[in-house]
Amino acid sequence: MRLLITNDDGVHAKGIHALCKELEKYHDIIIVAPDDQRSATSHSITIAKPLIVKEVELPDIKSKAYSVSGTPADCVRVATDQIIKDKVDMVVSGINIGYNLGTDILYSGTVSAAVEATLCSVPAIAVSTESSAEDYVYENAAKYIKKVIEVAVSNKLHEDIVLNVNVPPIKDEDIKGIKVCKIGKLQFHHYYKETGKEQENLVYKLEGERVVNHVEETDSYYVDNGYVTVTPLHYDLTNFNILKDVGKWF
Amino acid sequence: MRLLITNDDGVHAKGIHALCKELEKYHDIIIVAPDDQRSATSHSITIAKPLIVKEVELPDIKSKAYSVSGTPADCVRVATDQIIKDKVDMVVSGINIGYNLGTDILYSGTVSAAVEATLCSVPAIAVSTESSAEDYVYENAAKYIKKVIEVAVSNKLHEDIVLNVNVPPIKDEDIKGIKVCKIGKLQFHHYYKETGKEQENLVYKLEGERVVNHVEETDSYYVDNGYVTVTPLHYDLTNFNILKDVGKWF
Q1: Residue B199 belongs to some domain of the structure
Q2: Which of B54, B107, B232 minimises the CB distance to A246?
Q3: Would B192 be classed as within a structural domain?
Q4: Is A25 exposed, middle or buried (0-12, 13-18, 19+ CB in 10 A)?
Q5: A231: confidence class by pLDDT, cuts 50, 70, 90
Q6: Domain residues for A149?
Q7: A113-139 tens-digit pLDDT
Q8: Which of A199-203, A243-247, B173-177, B178-182 is least confident?
Q9: How does DSSP classify residue B88?
Q10: In chain B, what residues touch A239 (CB-CB under 8 Å)?
Q11: In this complex, do A46 and B40 lie within 8 Å of one another by their Cβ atoms?
């Protein structure tokens, strides 16, 4: 298969290297990723500035790689429209350095790149793990993605489906299995701290920590219990559960 | 009620002025909006830089107004966490200069600010109209929002619901009514044009136009047929339709 690999940590991040190194053993890979860190850029796209696309060499990676002066969603768009002339069979976004769990995925550039792929009619997988200094954490996550791709292909992963995968940062033998589940609640409790004044203006800094906010049978619950989680996502934000009710209001 | 008003076109945009001017007749308003244009920033948040919050005076507006050196989602977060000490009853985001229809709402800072409000347990309304030089277009959209707020309150709009409203840029007497409906397909056909080379790098510029891509009974279909559209949105990206099926894959 021809796979486009992207991320939001930038083309030089160790997560995307580990992913490419594993997947280029089995597939044709093209990396098109941001030129720098783009965490928390969500589904933003660059509309007012041009995108600069540069071929880059990555150590120990055989596949072609390009950096883009834009967001993860920009990477998917310019890659499928211009850089890659042939059909892309799947987009894999990651490995993100930090989980993408619960409603926090709304902020994620990694997940948004995968959602953008489905808007371009390409099925996609987003993959994240907890930040770690250990290489085996990323190598292990990459091996799980090889497996998830095989399963997805043998089940004909439809072009409008994103699978959001999180892998716990533990040794392979300690992983209890794969759980397909819904997303949970907000993971990061964020708050602002007033850090001073600049002339008349107030200055705030964002602080926060991950909270254990478990709802059973959700992604954060399972990942904290040693499972790899797989959540199918979609891109239609309509709240169909209440569409009829709201229809009676007007 | 105490309403927080924000947008993605920036605190000095004419859409937010028209909205505030209408709603401050009936409600307590605080404006907290980006200091400049932030279109297409989606649900991105500022994590690495501090946010600078500045009180600003807006011509013909009595309500307090603040500019923020961040995204629309940042505005909602810092406003509810720090700037506004009392409970906010509702967030209204807009009036966006340009429709927010179909799956294009994924890119929208205006819609994302409203979604962020619901993550902060505040019900929210996003409102957009087609870009227009005519003041009455924005004044008319503001009057519809006054009405939508009344209806939402009398039906106890729940804290986890966003209503996405689009108002066509036509005279009030030509508007056929209000339709509650699902979102449609992609509205903008985007493509990249190679505009030259900088040293060894390729440079691409985004171009695009709105395409008529109507699916019946969707927001774009109705708005192009002279209706104000209201779509309830949610923030759980889990694809529940296929969750069980994917569960059988692994």
Answers
A1: no
A2: B232
A3: no
A4: exposed
A5: very high
A6: 2-183+216-245
A7: 999 999 999 999 999 999 999 999 999
A8: A199-203
A9: P
A10: 161, 232-234
A11: yes
| For B67, nearest residue in chain A (alpha carbons) | A201
Q: Using an 8 Å Cβ cutoff, are B230 and B248 in contact? A: no
Cα–Cα distance list, A184 to A104, A209, A214, A217, B238 (Å): 9, 16, 7, 8, 9
Residues A68-80 have a mean pLDDT of 98
Rounded to a whole number of angstroms, the CA Rg of chain A reads 19
Q: Write the single-letter amino acid at B228.
A: V
Taking CA atoms, A136 is separated from A21, A167, A169, A171, A190, in Å, by: 13, 12, 9, 8, 30
As for how many domains chain A has, the answer is 1
Which residue do the tokens 């932030």 mark?
Answer: B38
How do B201-210 and B162-167 pair as beta strands? unpaired
Read off the CATH number of the domain in which B95 is found: 3.40.1210.10
Q: Residue B39, annotated ligand binder?
A: yes
Interchain contact, A249 vs B152, CB within 8 Å: yes
List chain B residues with CB under 8 Å of A57.
none
* Mutation for A interface: B145, B198, B233, B237, most A CBs within 10 A: B237
State the smallest CA–CA distance between residue A38 and chain B in angstroms: 10
Q: Is there a domain that residue A12 lies in?
A: yes
Q: Is A246 within 8 Å of B180 when comparing Cβ atoms?
A: yes
Residue B30 within any structural domain of the chain = yes
Minimal Cβ distance to A53: which of B119, B181, B201: B201
H or E segment at A140? helix A135-154
In what helix (H) or strand (E) does residue A229 lie, and over which residues does it extend? Answer: strand A227-233
